[in-house]
Design brief:
Largest sheet: 6 strands, antiparallel, barrel
Number of helices: 5
Shape: globular
Strand order of the largest sheet: 1-2-3-6-5-4
Structural class: alpha+beta
Radius of gyration: 36 Å
Order of helices and strands: HHHEEEHEEEEEEEEEEEEH
Distance between the termini: 131 Å
Mean pLDDT: 75
Strand content: 25-35%
Helix content: 10-25%
Number of strands: 15
């Protein structure tokens, strides 16, 4: 019997298989993979996937950014609901007259004021859910009774909170109102000539009438009659013999004599169609924000003060900038205005 000359242990010994004879060695064994390591490997895959999604989002315009944020639990500050921040115009309707009209019309009201001079019709803008409404001073000046009708047809009695004849602004309060939709006050200093705007009001008592146009000019010096609450001033509604609201511009008088007591303010000029009854209503930007309170309009057939309420707009209207209103709100609420 031949003996091996190699020392014991020089070759590794393997377990035998089958009939006990030495067989080929088995494949080398790998150390067991821990459960924690498996979890770590799985966790890496979504991160890589999300990174790829984020890169693709950058290429197509960022449309999946909110999706990535939701998957990772991050906060993308998304406004949700398809609503433009600070407005009620849906994202799909943003920039359209129809979208603005649908969103803002519920905040515009019709105002019917009764005084010893007769009845007049104007418009107003709801600014608080409990019924604060902004309008022109000349719409409610001298009124013994004020009725306000919402876009839904519901009617409220209103009381005067404060007036500012110098700025032709007034604040009234609907009695017993609550849960009303409120308008968003924008920034009139951000306007540019040529910006598209929408006007909503109640010309000739036609509640919720919508017209559109552009900003024709800014900072126009417009002079209007200064109502003091005791005068028998012209009603803006054109009803029962009421005249259209007179104003002066460029040294000329329009729609009648403004009288001796007047006030001048810087106005937004627009070619959006305005007619008797639009006074106190809203001039609105395409985000649905109020940027002006409509206050005066030129009508050729009534320039001599004929009182012809059937005269139409010729595209020469003026609105009080909303920043003037915002600066005056505390005074109006305190009732200490002129």
């Amino acid at each position: 019997m031949t003996e091996s000359q190699r020392p014991s242990g020089e070759y590794p010994m393997y377990p035998s298989y089958g009939n006990g004879d030495a067989s080929y060695p088995p494949p080398p064994s790998y150390p067991p993979v821990s459960e924690a390591a498996t979890r770590r490997r799985r966790a890496k895959r979504p991160v890589a996937l999300l990174a790829a999604v984020a890169i693709a989002a950058g290429v197509v315009g960022g449309g999946t950014a909110a999706f990535v944020g939701r998957l990772t639990g991050g906060d993308t500050n998304s406004t949700g609901g398809g609503v433009v921040p600070g407005t009620t115009v849906s994202q799909s309707s943003k920039g359209t007259v129809a979208g603005v009209a649908q969103a803002v019309s519920p905040m515009i009201v019709e105002i019917n004021a009764t005084s010893t001079a007769g009845k007049s019709t104007g418009s107003g803008v709801v600014i608080t859910s409990d019924g604060e409404v902004v309008t022109n001073n000349h719409v409610i000046s001298g009124a013994s009774s004020i009725k306000v009708r919402l876009s839904t047809g519901k009617t409220y009695t209103a009381k005067v909170v404060g007036t500012d004849a110098d700025k032709d602004l007034a604040l009234i309060k609907l009695q017993g109102a609550s849960g009303l939709k409120t308008a968003t006050l924008g920034d009139s200093s951000a306007l540019s000539v040529g910006d598209q705007v929408v006007a909503i009001g109640s010309p000739e008592g036609l509640t919720g009438t919508v017209t559109s146009g552009i900003v024709s000019a800014l900072d126009r010096d417009v002079t209007v009659a200064k109502e003091d609450g005791n005068s028998q001033g012209q009603g803006q509604g054109g009803q029962n013999g009421g005249q259209q609201w007179p104003f002066e511009f460029g040294g000329r008088q329009f729609n009648g004599d403004t009288g001796e007591s007047t006030t001048t303010y810087k106005a937004i000029q627009t070619d959006a169609s305005l007619n008797p009854g639009n006074s106190g209503g809203a001039l609105i930007n395409m985000n649905g924000e109020i940027i002006g309170i409509n206050s005066a309009m030129y009508s050729a057939s009534s320039s001599g003060g004929s009182g012809d309420s059937g005269a139409g707009s010729v595209g020469l209207g003026f609105a009080i900038p909303v920043n003037t209103l915002k600066a005056d709100l505390d005074t109006l609420r305190s009732g200490t205005g002129s």
